[in-house]
Amino acid sequence: MFSDLFSALAVLCFAVLFLILVLRRFRQPYFIAYIAAGVLLGPKLLNTIPDTAVVAELGEIGIVLLMFSIGTEIDLHHLSQHFCRPFAIALVQILLSALCMYALGMQLGWPASRIMLLSFIISLSSSAIVFQYLQRTGEIKSQLGIITCGVLLMQDILVVPMVLSLNFISGSNTSFFELVKVCIGGMLILLFLRSAIKRRIFNIPMRRELIADHDLQVFIGFCICFGMAWVSFWFGLSPAFGAFAAGIVIGQDKATRWLGKSLIPFRVFFMAFFFLAIGLQLDVVFFSANAGTIVLVAVSVLIINSLANSLLFKLSGNSWRDSIYAGALLSQIGEFSFVLLTLAASLGLVGDYMHQITLAVITSTMLLSSVWLAIIQKLIYKLPAQED
């Protein structure tokens, strides 16, 4: 068993390294290498990593670590001052997605459950991709970056009622206690953040000792990150949301700047597993047989989401240039859409064909997002100065 695991990890590392070096020459994001490695090493091709469940669980750890580290970079006071705009943009964007899916579903004769599911799926953008891009470009602390991060955070919060809605329409029994627990958990975390806005409510002990002790830094970081993630999960919320809230609070203290840096290697490693899990689930034979439909739908989603988000950002007071840029950033379908799709499949809301076509479209929008963003950026640079 150990030899199998060792062999799989060795092959995985070499495959990812090779693909990263190739993509580096073309200045493409590394998550494409992770997805491609998953497809290559998955059960449909080389079958080096047949157990997708373990990889998916490791990927969830990567999302939690990413959201925690991003939270440490967020200016909490700035975010609180711009709460209404991100919430309004996220909410209206979901409503627009629902209208589009309703119009399409009526033409194709889809059931209401499928219309609702697809509305939820296309309305969620990728926090992992957008946050990493904004960090790399240094725009995460800009006004546009703050609002964009706020929209992503609101989307992550709205995943909770989406999950409850899917359980309800499937006929699954959700107890009254679980509903109350979710509401209480959401209110407690919001109150926690509100208290953090008014005053610093957390101080890490043994600060001087921690500066020179890397082991203590790592495990205190893990305790804070995974502790809040576990609390959030227990209340029925997303673990990533709890980790993000913990990161925001910790980030207020300048003495904890070492915290995010200490966890970067772990974040990179486990985030690779998240995108790897996406590639492992992708059926290459199905994709090649339906490539035309998948690419057409994926490009349509990128265009529709870009237009909708650009309009909403413009109506919220941003310039056309910033609005178009933000629309392109949020155009792809996100990682929590995989969570909703997996839940819908387990509840019997989608069949095998719809599951695979949706999975392929989500993956395609992620893979095409960097190309789409480059196209939009070239368009933005051609806009006259008075459009800002």
From TrEMBL:
One of its GO terms (biological process) is proton transmembrane transport. Residues 15-376 form the Cation/H+ exchanger transmembrane domain. Keywords: Membrane, Transmembrane, Transmembrane helix, Transport. InterPro entries: Cation/H_exchanger_TM, Na+/solute_symporter_sf. It is a multi-pass membrane protein. The chain crosses the membrane at residues 6-23, 30-46, 52-71, 83-104, 116-134, 146-169, 175-193, 214-233, 268-287, 293-312, 324-347, 353-376. The keyword Membrane applies. The keyword Membrane applies. Pfam families: Na_H_Exchanger. It is found in: Membrane. GO terms for cellular component: membrane. Coiled coil: none annotated. GO terms for molecular function: antiporter activity. Belongs to the monovalent cation:proton antiporter 2 (CPA2) transporter (TC 2.A.37) family. This is Transporter, CPA2 family. It comes from Flavobacterium nitrogenifigens.
